[in-house]
Amino acid sequence: MDPILEFDRVSFHYDTDADCQPTVNNVSFSLPRGQHLAILGANGSGKSTLARLMNGLLLPDAGTVCVAGMDTTDENFIYEIRRQCGMVFQNPDNQIVESTVALDVAFGPSNLALAAEEIRIRVDEALALTGLSELRDRAPHELSGGQKQKLAIAGVLAMHPSCLVLDEATSMLDPVSRAELMQLIIKLRDEAGLSIVQITHYMEEALEADYVLLLSEGSIVRAGSPEEIFSRPDELRELQLEVPPFIEITQNIDRIFCNDNAAAIIDVNEAAGHVSQVLVNARAEEFPEEILQDELFRLQGLVNAERRTHPHADEPVIEVNDLSFSYDENPLQKVCALDQLNMQSNRGEILGIVGVTGSGKSTFAQHLNGLIRPEQKGKVRVLSLDLSDKKNVRQVRRMVGLLFQYPEDQLFEETVALDLAFGPKEMKYSPAELAENVERAAAITGVSHLMDRSPFELSGGEQRRVAIAGVLALNPEILIMDEPSAGLDPAGREVILNNLTELAEAGKTVILISHDLESVARTADRLMIMSQGRAVAIDTPEKIFATEGILAETGLSLPTTVEFLNLIKKDWTQMQASAFTVSEGLAAILSAYLETAEEEADG
Amino acid sequence: MASISMLGRTFAADSLLHNMNSSVKLVAAIALMALALMSQHPLVLLLMCILTLILIKLSKLPFSLVMRSIRPILFIIIFAFVVHILSGQGQAIISFWIIKISLEGIVTGTLTALRITLLVINTSLFLTLTTSPTELANGLERLLSPLRHLRFPVHEFAMMMSIALRFVPTLLEEADKLMKAQSSRGASYDTGSIVEKLRGMVSILVPLFISSFRRAEDLATAMEARCYRGEAGRTRQSAKSLTWREYSLLGLLAVLFVVVLVIQPLLPQLNGFF
Fold this sequence. Notes:
The structure holds two protein chains of two kinds.
Chain A: E1 5-12, E2 24-31, E3 36-40, H1 47-53, E4 62-67, E5 70-71, H2 78-84, E6 85-88, H3 101-111, H4 116-130, H5 145-157, E7 163-167, H6 175-191, E8 195-200, H7 203-206, E9 211-216, E10 219-224, H8 226-229, H9 233-238, H10 245-256, H11 268-285, H12 289-306, E11 316-327, E12 335-346, E13 350-354, H13 361-368, E14 377-382, E15 385-386, H14 393-399, E16 400-403, H15 416-426, H16 431-445, H17 460-472, E17 478-482, H18 490-505, E18 509-514, H19 517-521, E19 526-531, E20 534-539, H20 541-546, H21 550-554, H22 560-569, H23 582-602
Parallel strand pairs in A: 3-8, 3-9, 6-7, 7-8, 13-18, 13-19, 16-17, 17-18
Antiparallel strand pairs in A: 1-2, 1-4, 4-5, 9-10, 11-12, 11-14, 14-15, 19-20
Chain B: H1 22-38, H2 42-59, H3 63-67, H4 74-86, E1 92-96, E2 99-102, H5 103-129, H6 133-144, H7 154-184, H8 194-225, H9 244-263
Antiparallel strand pairs in B: 1-2
Helix pairs in contact in B: 1-5, 1-6, 1-9, 2-5, 4-5, 6-7, 7-8
């Protein structure tokens, strides 16, 4: 049988590319039916262009693309190709055409001129498969991001495709929805026999695939099974990607204990079992402890270098007492967003606020700079100013910078310099003060060299930094950011988080809001866990991960690295399981091993 | 923003009004609009009010929810009322300084306010609250289909309308978010001179336009990927067939036109009572 998808020496470049650097360069691969392919690459590596070549939305300049044996350049086949090779895009809002769930699922089949009765059957079937039957009469804007993406998948399924292409379809979702969507995709692959092409920069998603392609500057730089691909962490880092820390920890354990193991272990349980076994064997063989001592010493040096400590005073800058708030926008349901919330944040700390979607994080953040004022109940004091008093709002706005999700959407001026000056101008800063503040903000975020460019021609990561600089230009004491790293590739995420750490070192208070524990836990000094409008815990990440049960009730999932260490901890109870980086994890494992060895020697 | 986020929202329910043929609903909405504007006599307006209340009841939607649709234009209603009161016609019952308030002014003011209210409530009841944008577009497409002979792109026009309506809530949410974001950067939209306010609006409108263009591009790609090729080879949405419900509504509207056009001029003027 034909492979479902076949690329043969395909090249493509956009007409607007003056320098003629092809966006897709001599790409060849073939995907057998029912298989799962993941395509990894940094932002701008040509992934989305590659996706659009798969169903004839774009046509190759050179080479051929065949879907189930049909050439995409043959106009006779184009609608059959698009039917067979369905596509789900990144932005959940921008691919729903019709005004209710059921009508939207019917959009594709209607375009195929199917009979009304057949369309009805297919819609019911697609809704059942994706679990949306209950929501069939809902309007698109009443759905969550994850539900919208499921709807997009249902719309494709109703056309009875043989291949599903997901172009960063999970990148705008929260971790819970992302996991749900991933489950759905795997179910469709295993039960309905669909071929899957998944373009992503979430490495965990690629672990589920049969094959992985690494894309860089439009070319395939490596192809192979996930085990092969993830056994080369340095190569991935060079491509602005990353390896899940647990895989790298396992590989390093093999290296330290002199085990030959070429392929990476990509399953958490398997990897943890493997590490435990290696340690047990080492104890049995009495592996020379000096080697481990040296290694641990080196690792601790790395850990200290990575974990930059910054001074923070005991001076509270935010105090919130008994804050409650509920929305009454929809007359049919009243939503209680905040419920007697108490918290306090000190000058110079990085506080991570983590909770699932709907836990009240965003409502809470809007209370901190007076976008919502505590009219109903409770008190919010920021830098000793009471926000119940309307007169304080303007002053607080100046000292509290708040950035929403995807802040680059708010850029609007002709040049970066003008955009950075917008806030200070509105706040009536003197020209000298304005220039100084704008320059400082640009320097902190590293956008000084972009000042004369239009914000709209920058890359996603650069735009994000310009947006942050736009708020820093007011020289705020406190910076609050909702999902600072959402939608960026691993390298882009790292740059933003480093910027925020530098700010805290300079004495600013930074508040990071996220539904992703993993991304925040590494950077934050303290975490505040939110659930159903309450702050259920505020403590250091170490203590929060060590206290069992806190996270389970809130619907948040443990970072994979912590989960991995917890699995090893079952055998090596001495271990401290809250580590976020490779060196921290390795250090924890080695010290647990050495301690156990010492105790046994004593006893 | 509470009132704005209500704009253009459809509330699903299983009611007579929800299940009606959307072409008929469009015709009814236009007819009721005309009727509200032509109703001059208090008795006729009273009749229109009662009819509207019955229609709300038939829609099975909560009364308060339907009434919310006048919120965005409450200002205009009050303005119209005040202008009529201050118009100074007729015998003054209260007068101080240069302000003269007459009973006649109050009555015409009330009637005008009532007319605008009826107009808005009936339109939103028929066109947005009980009809999804897709149904509305289908209704429009069927109504306009004779224009095909004049080479008017009926299908494209209806599709455009439907997509525009579908994105209204999305764009409103985005505008709200942008306003909050720019406020956090120091912009203020409720204070300052008109020039300052206009400059403030630029900081919302420019990003909104840019994102709308991006949305349009994304949506076009998504539609293409789902085999959309215009009207050709597309399954027609089968219309709900006309039943006694539609015929009785159309009949009722015809009777109302007779009342407004023929009977209304014959009614005794009530002005004499004042």
